[in-house]
Amino acid sequence: MQDLSGSGWQAAAWSAGAMTLIVALRYLLTSGAFAWATRIVRPGLYQGLEPQIRREIGWSLASAAIYGVPAGVVAWGWQQLGWTRIYTDFSAFPLWYLPLSVLLYLFAHDTWFYWTHRWMHRPWLFRRAHAVHHASRPPTAWTAMSFHPWEAVTGALVIPALIFFIPIHVAMLGLVLAIMTLMGITNHMGWELFPARLVHSRLGGWLITASHHQRHHENYQCNYGLYFRVWDRLCGTDRGLSSL
Ligand SMILES: [Zn+2]
Ligand SMILES: [Zn+2]
């Protein structure tokens, strides 16, 4: 084990800075790509929203630092000190655990998100933390990370905390992060990416896509989930889909 004095923490700080840059670039490139796709698929959908989009990008870049710092420190600890339950050898766990680990992460993240999100809709907290996200009316492909710093902190700690408890192969962790990025952006972009026959299928009835989250941005007190409709359905907060 490396000692944590001096150069150790300096390297952790470098890792935090590098991760912030990566998160910011990932946001700009993926949100940029879907904003560009929106211009082709739904020309004029974001017309007149330029001032809102500028604010969304500003809040999102601040969120990138809040997401990047814990992720960077944990990535450094994983590499240098053997922190976390991330594994790189495919034979370390049975192969069936690979998809199961992805589902466990998504479900744990979804559960955390549902309850913290509902909590942030209480008037006192809404005004102080969550109003920034709902200032996007309607949301756009740039809204995905548009959070007040308090809200960003609640989101930024989930995955870095989970990797200390739930074993996951590094490639599956990459998949979880890719799903998180894709759904965070497409759920806000104002049109449905997925085919109607999936969205309106039996399976679709348990999954969250743009049609579901759009209704949250229209009606506020419903559809709080992130990936799955399980908690919304169990708690009676599911109000169905918006017609996009
Ligand atoms: Zn939202
Ligand atoms: Zn909300």
UniProtKB/TrEMBL annotation:
Note the superkingdom of the native organism: Bacteria
Annotated keywords: Membrane, Transmembrane, Transmembrane helix
Biological processes annotated in GO = lipid biosynthetic process
Record carries keyword Disulfide bond: no
Per the record, its GO cellular-component terms are:
membrane
Principal subcellular localization: membrane
Where in the cell? Membrane
Q: Which residues form the Fatty acid hydroxylase domain?
A: 102-237
> Which segment of the chain is annotated as a signal peptide?
none
Residue ranges annotated as transmembrane are: 12-37, 57-78, 90-108, 152-179
Name the Gene Ontology molecular function terms of this record.
iron ion binding; oxidoreductase activity
Membrane recorded as keyword: yes
Protein name stated in the entry = Sterol desaturase family protein
- Species in which this protein is naturally found: Novosphingobium ginsenosidimutans
Q: Species lineage, top-down?
A: Bacteria, Pseudomonadati, Pseudomonadota, Alphaproteobacteria, Sphingomonadales
